[in-house]
Structures are given as structure tokens and as C-alpha cells.
Amino acid sequence: MFGGGACSFSFGTKVRSLEPVLAEKDRAQFFVGTSTLNQPNQIYIVEVNDNASDVTTRQVLRHPGEVLSLAPSPQDRQLLVTCGKQRGQPTEASLWKLPDAEEAPAHSEDDAEGGRDHAVDATAQDLTQLAAFPAQKLPVSEVAWDATADSPTLASAHETLLRTWRLDGGSVEAQEKLELDVSMLGGTTKRGASALAWDPHHASQLAFALGGSVRTWDLRAKRDSVSVEDAHPSATLSLDFNPNKPYAIASGGDDGKLKFWDLRNARKPVLSMNAHSHWVWSTRYHPQHDQLVLSGGSDATLALWRVSSISSSPLVELDERDLMDETAGGAAVADTLIRRVEEHEDAVYAARWATGGDAWMFASVSYDGRLAINHVPSTEKYKILL
């Protein structure tokens, strides 16, 4: 479906993971990983033109087992970490080197569906495994790069254990570890550590979810602390730090709410949104403009939010009375839902901003394999830029 600065496309198979190609700054490119038990799995590198009218497959990469999560290098576009699971085996994390992009011919996704599948299968390439992350006592669920570290540093989650790793050439070296006590977790889900998020403002600080709580790990002090005891009833599912404002973090959970916290005083959220009618699987601040936030949920919708009042640059300074008065301009800048995208028909597991090309573009994937590309409305851009 094309038009209006948006498009959507189906991969025809189950998908759980989506990430921008972080090291690509000139073009909007995304990794998309398939997640199916009975068919070969692949990682697609897709490129979107600036007006979001066309999606092009740049590379198709064979992957052993389901792709459960993707972690692209912030500096090197040819380095990628995946968490994958083959049938009957525990989940494993691997560091891969991508083949050169120019070796793979491009295919536009506005071709006929049958032709697209045939062409993609014919041009699939192999990944080169540089290293497998050493197995821990429990399987790995996700890996996250520290974009602020001087040398390549990653963290991994293993239910009751967190680990950090240093890349040295093609090898992965274990660094710090943190054992977690999950015996006191409340609720029915009892989720282990997940939703890893490195703090962009404070070196060696990692936030993560444990059950319904939000915790932080200070690697220098070698200890963790509970930042938000009951952020969500049973499961905090997604976290993201504000890129511009220290101590500010957003969370999404099993209560369908999108909450914003000041970690210095987190007894209650500074803002709470009724974001979705079911679980909030994805939460992402805009990389530059923290007035904008994405959320994706199990209700098969993607939401674009304006949270100007708690951003680093509120759109306009208004007192409380003005915020309730449309004639004073309050309605135009109040914290609110900007748009709800309803192109998906299954749970939206990931929503991400483009980090190259058009900075106002965002993408989302749902479990049924649909990729949707959308733009921030022009009226919102003008409020931020003017």
C-alpha cells in the first residue's frame, strides 16, 4: 500500500525483530529478521526512499534458526549480533560479519509477491560467524551494544544473569557479570532480565527490566539498584532512555501503559499514557527530537506520541491554565497521541526510527510479517523546527 508518505509490505513469514542499520547515515536502512520454526530463516536489509514510497531489498542473509533479536554495531555496518534459536537447542548469541552489499543485486518490493519471493531466495547470501558468545547457565535472550563506549562493548541478558562483553578483533571476551535474585518477583509472568538499555549520558550504566520493575546496573560500582519498584503490574517489556535529557527513561508494560520516569525521583511517573489495549512491546524516543516517542503493542497498533512537556525542549512555555485553553495554543502542544497506525494485523513487536536518510521516518514490524513505513506529519515537524 503506497501513498501519503507511507507504505507497507509483507514478508510472508513471521517476524519479531527490526533494527535500523545504525552505521549507515546517508540512507534509511533496516535489518528485519524472520522467526519461523519450519522454514529457513533470513535477515533482510531493506532500504526506504526518502518519501517512503518504495522499499528495496538490498541484501538477504541466511540465518541458522529463528531470529529472536538483532543488535547492529553503532560504528561498523558489517557487524551484527543476533540471538537465534534452532529447533531443540537453546538460544545462542553470535557475532556476524555481513558480506559486501554490492555483491547482492537489489529487488524492489513493489514487484508481484510471487516474483519477489523467487528473487529473494535466489540471491540469499551467507553470513560469516566471527564468534559465538560463550554459553552461560541460562540461555541468552538479547544483546545490546554500548554506543558510548570507547571500545566495542556489549551486554547480554540470561534471565537471572547479566553479562558484559568486549570485542577484541574477531573474539568475544567476557567482562563483568551480575547475578539477579528473581525469587521475590511478583505477578504471574515472573519475567527474567530483559529490555536492556545503555544510558547515553552516564558511562557504564545499564538499565534493564526485571519482572515489573526497572533496575540499573552501575558497572563501576559493581552493583545493581531498583530504580522503579513497580513500573508495571507484572512485566516491564520495553525501555528507552531519553537521548537529550539525563535520568529520563520511558517504559512500556503489560498494563498497556507508556510511562515516563525521572530516575532521581521515581516514586511515580512524570507522565503516563494509556497507550495500547494490550502489552506494550516496543518504546522508542526519536534520536534527536525527544518530544516524539513511538510505541508498539499486542493490540496490532503502532502509536506516535507527543510528550513535549517533559522533553528537553518544550514546544512552547505555557502555564497550567494556558495548557487547558485552546485559544492560548495549549491544544497544539499538549502531550497527546499524534497518530495511531492500524496497518498491522498482529502484535507489533518492534518500532524504530530511521537513523539514516529522512530523520522523520519510522518503521514497524508485526508478528505476521508486515513491515510498515510512516512519517511524522508535517504539522508536527513545523512545531518542533520553527
From TrEMBL:
Keyword Repeat: yes
Domain EIPR1-like beta-propeller: start-end pairs: 7-305
Basic and acidic residues bias spans: 104-117
SMART domains recorded: WD40
Keywords for this protein: Repeat, WD repeat
Entries under Pfam families matching the protein: Beta-prop_EIPR1
Database matches in PROSITE patterns: WD_REPEATS_1, WD_REPEATS_2, WD_REPEATS_REGION
A single BP term in Gene Ontology: protein ubiquitination
Region of interest: Disordered: 90-117
WD repeat start and end residues: 229-271, 273-309
Gene3D superfamilies linked: YVTN repeat-like/Quinoprotein amine dehydrogenase
PANTHER family membership: EARP AND GARP COMPLEX-INTERACTING PROTEIN 1, WD-REPEAT PROTEIN
Family: Belongs to the WD repeat EIPR1 family.
Protein name from the UniProt record: EIPR1-like beta-propeller domain-containing protein
Organism annotation: Phytophthora fragariae
The organism's taxonomic lineage, starting at the top: Eukaryota, Sar, Stramenopiles, Oomycota, Peronosporomycetes
